[in-house]
Amino acid sequence: MSAETADAKEPSQQGLGEATRAYQAAVDDFDRELARLFGINETDLRCLEILLLELPEALPSQLAERLGLTTGSTTALLDRLEKAGHLARSPHPTDRRKSIVRATPAFQKAAYDLMAPLVDEGHQMVADNYTPQQIATITDYLRRAIALQQRHTRQLRSMPRMRGAEQDTTASRG
After folding, report:
1. Between 168 and 83, where is the model more confident?
2. Contact predicate 67/43, CB 8 Å
């Protein structure tokens, strides 16, 4: 790659990085507003999102792993969401020591009602503005970005929590 090509590529990578960061911030803002409307915190919302989109029937241990929480924290989270009527627990069909967790039909309907306008408008925006080949490229980018993010999330979860002076040192390096 020539120096001219490298220089020309840098602004597009910088623009992509800035757009990706801004997109993530917009998603975070939307999620915070959903959590506010449901009267829950963002971790609780993420748990419900997992139940809606990834694991419609989950074991508490699966949710703990996906959320990076201890079993005690997960139990408290599930208790809060069950009390709020957002999820239900039922006995595991083959192991009496376990339970199955599901989002309630009422929560599912409320969540879909709130998210449907965004999803519908997003589908229309993509259909109106991108070719199938461009959509394939965007999809490839997002899948790679997801894998990258998940890899680094696992790495951070494996690290011990930072304490006062360590936080100050790390912050000053950034």
Report:
1. 83
2. yes
100: three-class secondary structure by DSSP: strand
pLDDT digits (tens, 9 = 90+) for 144-159: 999 999 999 999 989 9
For the stretch 16-29, pLDDT in tens is 889 999 999 999 99
Contact predicate 44/78, CB 8 Å: no
> Cα separations (Å) of 63 from 46, 86, 87, 96, 144?
10, 15, 13, 18, 23
Please classify residue 110 by burial: count the beta carbons closer than 10 Å to its beta carbon, then call 0-12 exposed, 13-18 middle and 19+ buried.
middle
Specify the residue for token string 């792993």: 65
- Tally: H helices and E strands in the chain: 7, 2
Q: State the pTM of this model.
A: 0.80
Torsion of CA 81, 154, 99, 74, to 10 degrees: -40
SS3 (DSSP) at 91: strand
